[in-house]
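Running low. Invent one:
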Amino acid sequence: MDNISNVIYVDAAYSYSKDIGQTKLAPHEAYGYVERSANNIIIIFIKKRGSDNSLTIAAGEPIIKGLVLPDTALVSIASAHKTDLLKGIAIDSSVAITWRDVRYVANVSEYECAVMNTKGIVYRIENDHIVIKDPQTTRTYPNPVKNHPEGEHPTYLMIPVSFITGVSATT
């Protein structure tokens, strides 16, 4: 597509507060050239003059600057997303959650979301997100594998339910 589009999406959010209070997924907004690649949405902010975005992606050429979103990040999909993955998960239980994350890209030929693995304590489960207390998150894809976020350790993490691909109990 060669038109600039407005995309409204949700993303995971970290909190560094001692008490998180009420939680809600905040909508984010991006403008750019929009393409789809498998189960990802690519928003290209800057493109080569005269290039066709779908051909750029098909040829494996780098995205100059943009975002790669899970297709379930779109507000219209995320708000209506239903899953059985969280059934039987109790508040205050220890869990490991695998989830797909929004990813900023610059000058790379990668068109897939980041894959994250978070371990922590279930603090709250809402219709559209889960809140994890004392999260320890590792980005497992793409390489290199590294802790996320870098720096200060967050106290809470809100993960959109629509991003979750797996949940397991831990000890």
